[in-house]
TrEMBL record:
Database matches in InterPro entries: Lycopene_cyclase_dom
Primary residence: membrane
Keyword Membrane annotated: yes
GO CC terms, sorted: membrane
The name this protein goes by in its record: Lycopene cyclase domain-containing protein
Domain called Lycopene cyclase: residue spans: 19-95, 141-224
Pathway(s) the chain acts in: Carotenoid biosynthesis
An MF annotation (GO) of this entry: intramolecular lyase activity
GO biological process: carotenoid biosynthetic process
Compartments where located: Membrane
NCBIfam families to which the protein is assigned, alphabetical: CarR_dom_SF
Amino acid sequence: MAIALTYFGIHLVFLLPPILILGWFAFRRGRAWWGVRPLSGLALMIVLAVVYTTPFTNHLIPRGVWWYGRSAVLATVWHTPIEEYLFFVLQPILTALWLFQVGTVVDRPLTIPLAHRLVGVAGGLAIVAAGAALIGDAATYYLGWLFVWAGPILAIQWGFGLSYLWDLRRTVLVAIAVPTLYLWIVDRIAIELGVWIISDAHTTGYALLGLPIEEALFFLLTNVFIVQGLVMYMWVLDRIDDRLVRAGMSNRFVTSSDES
């Protein structure tokens, strides 16, 4: 099938327009997250996404887990197209700007029960273990590496803030679901156009309306990372504010007592 769009064209048609629209809404809407704090969190997510995902793609691409259509990419760095690195930047922006529309912070201390932390860490490590067991089979190679790659991040995030994420579960679910569904559609279109091709040999063959389940999981997991990371980032900053306010009130009380 002839390629109607290049990988860069996918960015121009499907990613940049919603980013611009959501960015405008976040900037204009008084109730949306905006400013130094959420944007600094987004910058942190972008850096982590590039650093953590680069070895992952550069491990799987040369092993034939997926490849790109002829003339679909401009150039590659290591084994990964430059458009893929650009996607590592654009996806966090897209997902974060949607989160900024619906995000909220609840009043919960950073100290959460140890049992909750252990459950969170154990859940992430169990995903790693499941992935390690799947890597040995060619048909579950992609799926296994997804789990091995995702598990450590989930263990860290859940170990730190599982209770808080549960308190905000409805917000987190909406923040994850909408960009994930959108990116599933974009991914399905790109595969249909031959912009990238997913290996039959390294996938299970299960699909969600034509989208390989491994691809669906990739976009789900990456959006989970972004949303959970930003939600907890804002939570930590909010708690720091509270402590500074209390410290300021305490200092004023001490000063006032000394003067009397």
